[in-house]
Design goal:
Blueprint (H helix, E strand, L loop, with lengths): L2 H7 L40 H14 L3 E5 L2 H9 L8 E5 L4 H11 L5 E5 L4 H7 L4 E7 L11 H11 L2 E5 L4 H4 L9 E5 L13 E5 L2 H14 L5 H11 L2 H20 L4 E5 L9 H7 L6 E6 L2 H11 L4 E2 L9 E3 L11 H7 L5 E5 L5 H12 L2
Parallel strand pairs: 2-3, 2-4, 4-5, 5-6, 10-11
Antiparallel strand pairs: 1-7, 6-7, 8-9, 9-12, 11-12
Length: about 375
Amino acid sequence: MKFETALIHAGQEADRSTGSVNIPVYQTSTYKQDGIGRDRGWEYSRTGNPTRKALEDCIAALEGAKYGLAFASGLAAEATACLSLLKKGDHVVSGDDVYGGTYRLFEKVFRKWGLEVTYADSKDPAAFRKAVRRNTRLIWAETPTNPLLNITDIAALAEIAKKAGALLAVDNTFATPCFQRPIELGADIVVHSSTKYLGGHSDVIGGLVAVADKGVYEEVKFHQNAAGGVPGPWDSWLTLRGIKTLAVRMQAHEANAFAIAEFLSAHPAVSKVFYPGLKTHPGHSLADRQMSGFGGMVSFELKGGRGAAEVFFKKLRIFMLAESLGGVESLACYPSTMTHASIPEKDRLKRGITGGLVRLSAGIESADDLINDLERALKR
C-alpha cells in the first residue's frame, strides 16, 4: 500500500456492523462482558478503545513500524513511551537543540528521580558518541530540530545506540512520516506530537509513538495502561481525520516554506535563515539524503534583537503570534519567551536561541499573501 493510500485506509476499514466508511467514535468508558473472563476484546477504555486502536494501527503503518501507541499529548508520549522505560541511574544522551518541553521534562521531572542527561551537538554524531557512558540506555534526537532546524544523522545515531546497547528515540514531529521514516534508518522508537502536522487543524492535543520491537512495545504498552495518559476517542477520531490529508497538506506547507525562506534570505532586516531546503543550510545534504521533503518550518534571526521582534509581531496580519505549529493556518512564534522559556537564558543563548530569533510555521494559505504579510512586518 502506497503512503498516500495508507493515510486514508491503514487501520481504518469500514465498520463491520454498519458499513460506515469512517471509524465510529466509541464514546464509552467500559464494555459489557459475556461472563467472568469472557470479554469481546475490550474491557476498559484506558486499556483500549476501538477508535484509539485504529489511530495506533495507522501510525504504525505510516512509520513502517510493527506497533503504535497513542497518548494524550506529545509530552505524555515522551514521558510514558521513552523515559518510563528507564530507571534511577540510567543515562540519556540528548541532542542539545530540543523542544523546551523536552528539556523541562528531562531537567525538572526525571532528573530529580535519578535520571542522568547529557546534551550533545545535534549536528555532530561524534559528539553523541563521545557523550555515551556505560550506563547510557537512551539516545534522544529531534530532526529537524526545534527551533533551529538542525539536521541529525539518524543512521549514525542508530549505529552508536546499537553499540552502546541503548535505544534510539527520534522525535519526528517536524518532518512527519510523509518526509522521514526514522525506523527505516535504524531508530527503535518514533515519537510525534500529533497536535501538530498529523492532526493538522489546531483543534486537538495528542501524542503518538511507533515501535519496532515487540519487547519494547509491551513495556511501553504496560506504562500506557498503568499511567493512563491516553487520548479520548473523540481526540483519536479528530487525529485520524487530520491524517487523511497529511500528504497534500505537507506538499503545500513545504512549498510555502521554500518561498518564505528564499524571501527572508534576501531581506536586509534578516541576518540568518534556518531552513534545511536551502542549499546554504549546513545540513542540506544530509536532509536531502534522509528526508523526502524539507517540511514547513522556517526560523530566522532579525537584526535588532528583541526590540525588532516586538515590532515585527505587532505588524503581522495573517501570521498569528501563537504557540504550536503544523496547522493549516500560519503561525509565528518567539521561542525565547514561548516554546523554549523553560531553558535558562544562558543555555538558550549558547544554543543559538537569541532575542532576534523568530520561528514560523508556514500554513497552506496563498504564498503571495504570506510573503506580503512578512514584507509589511519587516518594513522599517
